[in-house]
Protein 1
Amino acid sequence: MSPEMKQDLLNLGCLPAKIAVHYHGVPGNLIHIQKTDTTQKLCTILMLSYLDPVKGHLFALKALKAIAKQGVSEFKLRIVGAGHYEKQIKQFVSAHQLNPYVDFVGPVKYLSPAYFQEFSNADIFLHPSVKTKDDKEGIPGSLVEAMFAGLPVISTIHGGIPFVIQDKKTGLLVEEWDVENLACAIKALMDNRWLRNQIGNQARKYAESNLDLKIRELALEKIYNELIGN
């Protein structure tokens, strides 16, 4: 999946010759997003994932709480998905009076019109992954789909994410649990439509050239052919 995961295998004692790094890709040809050019002031931030601690929902909400404390109110976080951590996330939102800023959408069918509509309506895609005691991410599929959709992505230096996002070019990256810098990154994109478009366009170009499923299939076939040849 990523060089970072390769290192994990090496640390466990796996022989280097037995490891091939390969990212599977996403079906970019199916992702056709028509963004509506609007002058509305409300900034829509999208989190689309399974509701699990590793996805960083509480990290994101702490950053948004810091932004709200600055007197900024013209934003809305849409949390799309379901999972065992939903109760804790909702409790945090209520306990910190963040209800006016957060919509819980629930699950949507993968690659359905409703799924793509979430990308179409969003201004920023937020996926601040964090390590937990038992889990960490590789390269989140929804993050790559957001890149294909031309959305500016804010994420973390975590797992394989830095291998597909170049900070300040194809997305913005912060350290895990750095609430202050995550808030700054979100605010920077909220305040600058040109920057959102610039990063989103560069993310789309990178994804189309490197992360499409068909491209990755050819790379996987090459690995198989080399094994057969050996």
Protein 2
Amino acid sequence: MNAQQRELRELYQDTDERTEPFDPLTLSGEGCVLLAAEEGGKLLACGALKRWDRDSAEVKRMYTVPGARGCGLGRALLHELIARGRAAGYRRLVLETGDQQAAALALYERAGFRRIPNFGYYEGMDNSLCYELPLQDT
């Protein structure tokens, strides 16, 4: 997680240490999922679902290390998180990403996520973009 935060601070030229609080224990509760891809004991990519309520979960901490980008790991993890969200009975997934993260924006939009007004912690943050994916049976 530290590498992700360092990369985001550099990308946004942000010297403010304020970030959304991250407590791994909040990802270990009922309805939460933490996924990772590793090779040879090295973490390559990760992502999580954090339960909001009975109907909703937030995609959190999507990250692929720079040397593993372009291999489809982020896409595979996101698709698995979507599948796990459906299996858990969530009606929708939401997420936040930054406006300078073109690869992330493309990934989420290709997966069917659509822009929504900024929510919760992200309200009023100019660089934040929030998305939603309805999980209806088709």
